[in-house]
Amino acid sequence: MPKTRSHYVCNQCGAESSQYFGKCPACGSWNTLEEQVLTPATPMTARASVAAASRSRSKFQLQLPPQPKASLTFNQVVDHPQTRFPSGYSELDRVLGGGIVPGSLVLIGGDPGIGKSTLLLQMANSLSLQYRTLYVCAEESVQQVKLRAQRLGVGANTPTPHSPPPTPTPVNLYLLPETDLDVILAELESLKPHVTVIDSIQALYFSALSSAPGSVAQVRECTSVLMQMAKRQNITLFIVGHVTKEGAIAGPKVLEHLVDTVLYFEGDRFASHRLLRSVKNRFGATHEIGVFEMADQGLQEVLNPSELFLGNPEEYSPGSATIVACEGTRPIVVELQALVSPTSYSSPRRSTTGIEYNRLLQILAVLEKRVGIPLSKLDAYVASSGGLNVGEPAADLGVAVAIVASFRDRVVDPHTVLIGEVGLGGQVRPVSQMELRLKEAAKLGFKQAIIPKGQSVPDLGMEITEVSRVVDAIAIALAGRRQQETEESGSGEV
């Protein structure tokens, strides 16, 4: 019996090595080599694998039109305008850049149970009313998919491949419970769907390879062959990808380079809202987000996400401040909450939810050095409403004001928004898309905005206060609420 041997494959670039290295020799990434056991093949099995690989590649190879040997200029390239078509969900269309591009590859990743399959099944059902749609359920049986479809309200008379749909229903959604890539490619050739969903790419296997499904070689080869088929047949592919414990899509990093769009489904499994974020898009802007809410009938769109991440103005407590964050081209009004309390340990604790940890440490250092607030012996906790991840520097001013308000036990005016980046010298620096942020705040009824000095803004019916230092912004934000409380108490006495 032949002996088994193992080799090591980098999960970032796919490079193979006969021995383990802490650093990949090809791409230089650390701790990315994973061991894979190679099963030796008998001569008959090896010849059969080579023959199957040659047949598969000859049958499904990418057929390109003949091109001249000389290079082409942009004027010599023939234009083929692509018309986008809607997915049935405006939030998904927004993240994709305005709709689905025919022949594109979209990779969707996210934690288990976050709602990837639910979103794609609802999208496939919506698209099937106008386009032939194939749903490849590699991880579930057709009975399981039908149970989930009935719970989500998807058409109960969903046909299977090669069986015509019943006449009374317009649903044109086909199910294919298969993990063999050759069978899936043959089905794509015969059915010729407009849209195909692969759930998931880690469950597929290519018979010409001896490695196990989900390995680096299998994921890379299956995605490459599917990409050639999609470009040749002009099929739009939605591929579900598993994620690692660090949150990255499992498999080689080349997987994200092969596809046209990479989307991440984010959110707390125990919360109702979900965020669909674009990190790569060849046909639109990146870092766009779509907001969904998980309900009994599946995922529902949230058309005004600011109301989801904004608290009740009548219940504002000391340490709360309001900012306007921009995710791509979408402004979102978010409430920030800070809590500063004495510590009972030798080293104080710092904790964040939705705010970058290093940004909090930087703001605490600026407040202690430039503003004179002793925070080195106090615990500091900062959280965003709804757990929204706010990674841009425009939230610095809101974090600083919220921390000082909690330290002084003061309430910031809930009708005031704070926008600006805090520098190490205590300056308030300008940020981008200021007009877009202020329009969103004015639409929600905010009356005052504290922004960096020197930024031109239109007249939106709001009181605009420009500051150049963080100490001035803190004084204005806390003084405005004190004056309002004084006026209310004085009118009450009269």
Characteristic key phrases:
494 residues, Rossmann fold, 3 domains, nine-stranded mixed sheet, four-stranded mixed sheet, 29% helix, globular
How would you sum up this structure, described in words?
- With 494 residues, this protein is of the alpha/beta class.
- The chain has 3 domains: 1-41; 86-303, Rossmann fold (3-Layer(aba) Sandwich), CATH 3.40.50; 307-493, Ribosomal Protein S5, domain 2, CATH 3.30.230.
- The protein contains 11 helices and 21 strands.
- Strands 6-5-7-8-4-9-10-11-12 form a 9-stranded mixed β-sheet, sandwiched between helices.
- Strand 10 (273-281) and strand 11 (289-295) form a beta hairpin.
- Helix 8 crosses helix 9 (396-407) and helix 9 (396-407) crosses helix 11 (470-493).
- Residues 41-67 and 163-170 have low confidence and may be disordered.
